[in-house]
Design brief:
Layout (H helix, E strand, L loop, with lengths): L6 H7 L42 H14 L3 E5 L2 H12 L5 E5 L4 H13 L3 E5 L15 E7 L11 H10 L3 E5 L17 E5 L13 E5 L2 H14 L5 H33 L4 E5 L9 H7 L6 E6 L4 H10 L4 E2 L9 E4 L10 H4 L4 E5 L5 H14 L2
This protein binds pyridoxal-5'-phosphate.
Amino acid sequence: MNNDKKLATRLSHLGRNPKQHEGFVNPPSQRGSTVILDSAEDLYSDKKSYGLEGTSTHDFLTDALNGIMDANGTILCPSGLSAITTTLLAFIKGGDHILITDSIYGPTRRFCSSVLKGFGVEAEYYDPRIGADIEKLIRPNTKLIFLESPGSLTLEIQDIPAIVNVAQKHNILTAIDDTWSAGVYFKPLNVGVDISIQALTKYQGGHSDVLLGSVSVKRDDLFKKLKETHRDLGIGVAAEEAWLCLRGLKTMILRMNHQDKVARKIASWLEKQDIVAEVIHPALPTSPDYEIWKRDFTGAGGLFSIILKDLSDAQINKMLNAYELFSLGFSWGGYESLVINCAPQLATRKDPKWTNKTALIRYSIGLEDEDDLIADLERGFAAIK
Ligand SMILES: Cc1ncc(COP(=O)(O)O)c(C=O)c1O
């Protein structure tokens, strides 16, 4: 479908072709390992010949994701984390230096300090708000700059155009974990980022029952390399997961816009609570990142954090245990509201601000009624008064 239509319209039509499947609106969940070929000549041709290359269900999903991200090629991976690791394995080799935002998703950092370090790759962590000063960190062997904006716990917004500008000048690849915006509120590939990664597990799946990731690019050479690495790693995706994700895409914008509206309302309410030292939400005018967020993003979704005034671990646990609606769970972007205490996850940050055991609580706003959610937050505060 043409890109001249609004995304909400395109999402209703992307990723399906009723003529291809008996007129039914949606494509079937086509499972499969073996593909029966028509002739001996086809055996070693460029025709699809094995299930790891994906079935029509996967193709519908990658087409839809290309449409959302304005990409020319997308690969699917069995999780968001495997989309990240596949990207790193595709473009980095021993002896390379890579620059990674200090606000990166924890398991990405773990992969760098375990697997990539073992391969002789040096990962250096930079301040997410570094902007054009990233140029000072570039070395002759710097191959990739990895971004995540905002970080999924501490939510710093990066000046992506400034970083891309430096990267392009030095011929360095840029990759972004864009899960927070889902490719809906920000289009990394359209501002010159080379590689856009999604944990489709979050907003695209939307119902907390899918594990899936994707990597999207505009450039053909990058797509070719990604496909080769994906093939070499043998990481197929179950058709059921792709099908559930296609289903989730249809309502993604509605869900995200609603979660965005309610999250901003709740975040503003939290700013007025005595016990809250800081609300970290880039779309609040009080945020230090507000201007850059407003310049680059069209919305915010349902994820934000707060820092509480001095509270013991026992008090924090008491507050979290008092919630009836906010469930304790490590994901986000689903229809149900979630909460976690992030402090233990901040231990590996380079910036001492975060390692000094900050009482950082992250909320993912679901689809419950906003007044009920605020009452639940009040219940948590009352438990520790
Ligand atoms: C920012 C971010 N990127 C990537 C991932 C990984 O996604 P998955 O759980 O599908 O591996 C997550 C999961 O929490 C995440 O928060």
